[in-house]
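REVIEWER CHECKLIST
Item 1: Sequence provided? yes
Item 2: Single chain? yes
Item 3: Sequence as submitted:
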Amino acid sequence: MPDPDKSLLERLAEFLTPQPTSATERRQELIETLRAAQTEGFIDADALSMIEGVFQVGELCARDILVPRAQIDWIDIDSSVTEVIQTVISAAHSRYPVYEGSKDAVVGILLAKDLLRHASEANFQLRDWLRPAVFIPESKRLSVLLRDFRANRNHLAIVVDEYSNVAGIVTIEDVLEQIVGDIEDEHDIDEDADNVLLLANGDTRLKGITELEQLNTALGTQFDDDEVETVAGLITHHLGRIPKLGERVQIDGIEFEVQRADPRQIHVLLARRLASDIPLPT
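Item 4: Structure as written out by the authors:
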């Protein structure tokens, strides 16, 4: 811990002076010094959060943030143009892995803009407009992956396990969110009124900041915890840690699935009933 009797400049000078300590210890000392700087008003909270995010990117690897295989919006190379367009409209992403025969046989990446430009052509062939797929191991460090994304102007990588099977995907947005926090787009919940959103399939989409009272009203539940006020706090308190992207947590007959999260907080979840004896809200 930094010595409170020393000035910020003195603490920074000590950090810059070579000491026989490990890299981990030095990094922790720097973080503590920066936190003290934020407390003293030298840097703001957002800047501190991003600096800590940079350190986290250096420690995390692809398996820590990948979108799991089961949650990928796939396109079959043999799909008709109509089916492909329906998938793109429904999922509303900019890039899609395309497979042939098996989802472990990814043959390329389809960009939505390429589809829009050429789908009306008389002899349109999906294979002709695929971009090369980039494959990376689960163990690839995010700092290295971000550098590769920038150097190759690529925005999506296919993550494979030790048996060369597809484990998931990672996008450049996923990596950047570890530094700057959640990057919301036009498909994210961005209004206070949309903290709770009922989906067509019966699931309920929730912001992590949704208060337990809102959650109870929406799902007819009776969650009550004196130590937390939000659904993110409820899940984190239940697990004793922040869950990973794609992780599912069952609490009192409700399954929560983490859709958007970073190492610091939960942003968006799906909630669904597991038991039929929970009454619907009236």
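Item 5: Key structural point noted by reviewer: The chain has three domains: 8-60, 64-180, 192-273.
Item 6: Recommendation: ____
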